[in-house]
Design a protein that fits this description.
By secondary structure, the protein is of the alpha+beta class. It has a single domain (14-228), classed as Fumarylacetoacetase-like, C-terminal domain (Fumarylacetoacetate hydrolase, domain 2), CATH 3.90.850. Helices cover 15% and strands 30% of the residues. It contains five helices and 17 strands. The strands form five sheets. The chain has a six-stranded mixed beta sheet with strand order 4-3-14-7-8-11. A four-stranded antiparallel beta sheet has the order 13-12-16-17, with no helix packed on it. The chain has a three-stranded antiparallel beta sheet with strand order 9-6-15. The chain is globular. Residues 31, 81, 83, 112, 199, 201-202 line the site of manganese (II) ion (MN).
């Protein structure tokens, strides 16, 4: 323990990197809302290309490969949202669309777990989304696959099964705001830093899970994730 602090600081959250014994230290977690038209429609919104909007989760809410997702408190309606995750390796502000991919270290797949009942209430009352989105263990995420290995996939099936039944299926090419555009836009609002993660939105088919369910999802060509609800 360092003398500087009155108690031991929380551990640095990190994700495994496939093909490496080093960890990716996570700084912030940004999430894009309604980034697939069919999901915007299922949530009752206009799928037209409005400016992207963002919310955040806490880095210590990551659930790593092999860990379980504990059913959270204060809810009866917890939804899965299968998403491509972008791992930022080089920070910046006002990043151009043309150079945005130079800032990407790699990609992962994650679940933007959502207390839908609390989120719905927050929306209705014009309140922030944190209670719906930023709760403990709300961000299961696979290891990161370096862009140096797989490049920058702009298409590929994104899917999720619950108890072996397919619930979500889309393709990365259906994103309203593509990854370079999302990075560029986000960097006009926040100073991106190495270690930031961006959850890029979910295709249609979101739904509720229960204790005992097993979620298995992935993006073809990138990674898969398997999480049990306990
Ligand atoms: Mn989401």
């Amino acid at each position: 323990m360092h003398d500087q602090y009155v108690f031991e600081p929380a551990p640095q959250p990190g994700l495994e990197i496939s093909g490496s014994d080093k960890l990716f230290p996570v700084h912030r977690i940004y999430c894009v809302g309604r980034n697939y038209a069919d999901h915007a429609i299922e949530m009752g919104h206009d799928p037209n290309r409005e400016p992207p909007f963002f919310f955040q989760k806490n880095p210590d809410s990551l659930v790593k490969q092999g860990q379980d997702f504990p059913y959270p408190s204060a809810t009866n309606d917890v939804h899965f949202e299968m998403e491509l995750v972008v791992a930022i390796g080089k920070g910046g502000v006002d990043i151009g669309v043309d150079t945005a991919l130079d800032h990407v270290f790699g990609y992962a797949v994650g679940l933007d777990m959502t207390r839908r009942d609390l989120q719905g209430e927050a929306k209705k009352l014009g309140r922030p989304w944190e209670v719906g989105k930023a709760f403990e263990s709300s961000a299961p995420c696979s290891p990161i696959v370096p862009a140096a290995t797989i490049g920058h996939p702009a298409q590929g099936a994104i899917w999720l099964k619950v108890n072996d039944v397919e619930r979500q299926r889309g393709d990365l090419d259906q994103m309203i705001w593509k990854v370079p555009e999302t990075i560029a836009y986000l960097s006009t609002l926040f100073a991106l830093k190495a270690g930031d993660l961006i959850f890029t939105g979910t295709p249609a088919g979101v739904g509720a899970i229960q204790r005992g369910d097993k979620m298995v999802g992935g993006v073809d060509g990138i990674a898969e994730i398997s999480v049990k609800v306990v």
